[in-house]
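Q: How would the C-alpha cells look for this protein?
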Amino acid sequence: MEKTDKTMEDADRNAINAWKAALDPTTRKRALKLLTKEVDDIFLPLGFVRKGVRWHRTGWFATTFVEIQKSRYGNACFINFGRDARDADWRAPSYRNNTHWRIASLAQRDAACRLDQLPYAELDGASELRLEVVFLLRNGAAPFLEQAQGLFGFILRPRRSVEDELRRRPAAAFRRVLSALLLGRDDNRGAGSGH
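A: Here is the predicted structure in C-alpha cell form.
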C-alpha cells in the first residue's frame, strides 16, 4: 500500500511541476519563439506574410492563413489554418463560407485530441509534440492551403474532417460537394465546418 501512495505522490508532484512550467513566462516565450521560427521556415518561402503570430497570403479568390492562438489561460496554444473568401468572390454573400480548422483536423483520429490544445511546456526544447506539429504543418496544412487558394478552394476540407462528415452525415456531405461542383456554391448550413 505504501508503494502506491509513493507513486501517487510522485504523480502529483510531476503534475504540479508540469503545471508550474507551463505557466512560466520564459517557457512560454521560448516555446513560442521555436514554433514561430519553424512556421516561418515553412510558410515564408511559399509567399505568406507574417504579422505577429499570423501568416497569411492573399490571392485572387481567397486569403489563406495559419495562426497561433493563445489559450484562454495562457498555458497553451492552438494552431489554426484556413481560407477566408475575398470580397470580390463571385458567389452570393449568403453562400460565402469562411472556413477555419485546427491543426488537429489533419492528424490521425487517435492523435487529434492531443494536438488540439498544445501546452507550451510540451512544445519547449527538443519536443516530439513540436516535431509532430511541424510535420503536420509542412505535409498537411501547406499543401492544403496551396490548393485552397484557387477558384474551387471553397469546396476543399481537410481529409479527416471530410471523413468525419461522411461518417456522420453522408447525404449532407454528398449534397454539399454536388452543389459546389454543379452550382458553384458551398451550401454548408449545419455541416459542422468550423473547429
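The longest strand covers residues 76-85.

The beta strands are 49-51, 54-58, 62-70, 76-85, 99-102, 118-119.

Upvote if useful.
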